Amino acid sequence: TLSSDKLPCTQTFSVDDTVTWTKGEVLGRGAYGTVCCGLTSQGQLIAVKQVVLDISTSETAEKEYIRLEREVDLLKNLHHPNIVGFLGTALTDNIISIFMEYIPGGSISSVLNRFGPLPEKVFALYTRQILEGVAYLHDNRVIHRDLKGNNIMLMPTGIVKLIDFGCARRLNHLSTSGGHSDLLRSVHGTPYWMAPEVINETGHGRKSDIWSLGCTVFEMATGKPPLAHMGKIAALFYIGARKGLMPSLPEDFSEEAKGFVKACLINQKERPSAAELLRHPFISHHR
Question: Which end of the chain is more exposed for a tag (fewer CB within 10 A), N or C?
Fold first, then answer.
């Protein structure tokens, strides 16, 4: 059992006694750190993201700590039904733990692995909720920067929640420094959801999340993101060079669904905002 530092007062954790928790199975690995299940001394199941600070040099430890602090600062100020709930943090033996709401249904990508591509009615339902979460983030000047099926979790009730704010940024804190290492890390991850302007490093903003959303809708509809038949580097060059168009949804989907994905996967300036997409026929049609 690990003991945490005093956690911030929230509805779920009482502030009087120090909450302890027992570590369970690994739920997933994010852009940074590992997420495991935890059982608190008050009997609640929680998700705990743990990051081991690299203390080989004080400089790297400091950098990582600042990055995690930024993630926590973002998360603790975000309150929305379609964004994972933040419960607190602790630092024990160079391990930073971020305590979050536990979402038992798993990620959209795990749901796709289990059940195959989703029926249009279902992915329309999920898309609306993802858009609500993204619109809320953008209203609060936050860009997620890593939207994909793996970072969208499903409650058993059909509610979806955005997770993994390890790459997220508040818009006035965007810096050009470190862009290349960010990009390299993304490529180690996967480029299939990345907007052309992210690959070309020509300005990452709210509209880049919209591109990633389009790729995620494509993923929910077909089981894989666009260009999944290509290798990572080939896809990266294809998207970056804008050689030809991005693939459309197959013919058996409605015109609205095809139009929605197409609207997301176009030139940055012409891409609609999250608020505009909430009024798209694909979303209103399936209300």
Answer: C
Q: What is the CATH number of the domain that holds 39?
A: 3.30.200.20
Closest CA to 169 of 204, 197, 123, 220: 204
Closest by CA position to 138, among listed 192, 213, 199, 67: 213
- Alpha-carbon Rg for the chain, nearest whole angstrom, is 19
Q: Specify the number of domains making up the chain.
A: 2
> φ and ψ at 92, to 5 degrees?
-135, 120
Range of the domain at 243: 106-171+180-285
pLDDT tens digits along 105-151:
999 999 999 999 999 999 999 999 999 999 999 999 899 888 999 99
pTM of the model: 0.86
**Placement of tokens 């509805």 in the chain:** 11
Tokens 């960010």 belong to 182
Hey, which residues are catalytic here? 146
Q: Residue 142 belongs to a domain with what CATH number?
A: 1.10.510.10
Q: Residue 70: inside a domain, yes or no? A: yes
Write phi, then psi, for 241 (nearest 5 degrees).
-85, -10
**Cα–Cα dist 186/6, whole Å:** 34
Residue 170, strand partner residues? 142
Phi and psi, residue 246, nearest 5°: -75, 150
Q: SS3 of 159, please?
A: coil
Q: Are residues 32 and 111 in the same domain?
A: no
Report the Cα 281 to chain-centroid distance in Å: 25
> 230: exposed, middle or buried (C-beta count within 10 Å: 0-12, 13-18, 19+)?
middle
